[in-house]
Amino acid sequence: MEQTLVVLKPDTVQRGIAGEIITRFEKAGLKIVGMKMVAPDEKHFHEHYEGISQLISRWGEEIYRITLSHMTEGPVVALVLEGVEAVEHVRKMVGATDPKDSAPGTIRGDYTHVTRNFTNSRGGTLPNILHASGDKTEAEKEIALWFDKTDIYSYTTATESTVHGRVPEKK
Length: 171
What we know:
The protein has one domain: Nucleoside diphosphate kinase-like domain (Alpha-Beta Plaits, 2-Layer Sandwich), CATH 3.30.70.141. The chain is built from 10 helices and 4 strands, in the order E-H-H-E-H-H-H-E-H-H-H-E-H-H. The chain has helices at about 10-15, 20-25, 40-50, 55-60, 60-70, 85-95, 105-110, 115-120, 135-145, 160-165; strands spanning about 1-10, 30-40, 75-85, 130. A 4-stranded antiparallel sheet has the order 2-3-1-4.
């Protein structure tokens, strides 16, 4: 099974919709194998945003500072989700980074409406609900940054064989 990282951003926690978002992942058949509420410091976010995803290199120092300001407004909830092709599945569920490009039915499409153009023109933060790993390599690095191996659990859910499909016995 593949694992991916999801971080519910401060705007999600502040709005009181973390449970709804987590429920959507569970209803899709993804399994939570790690979860915690944390308030990381700048060093942690620098490693996440520049060390792994190259945010400063791609978007510049100003966007990084605005993002850092947003991510340190309050605690976040970090999740490790596990499932079949979990990274790609979660990305589809989440929608595009800029809420205006997120289709209805995606998490960002259903819970956000502000656009990057609007927030950037004001020098403001982009409250877009959550972060989700962009690919398998990024997921592995992000999970290692946010979670110790002892924070990740292996277990079987009551519905796992139904969600993943059964393999018929050979006769």
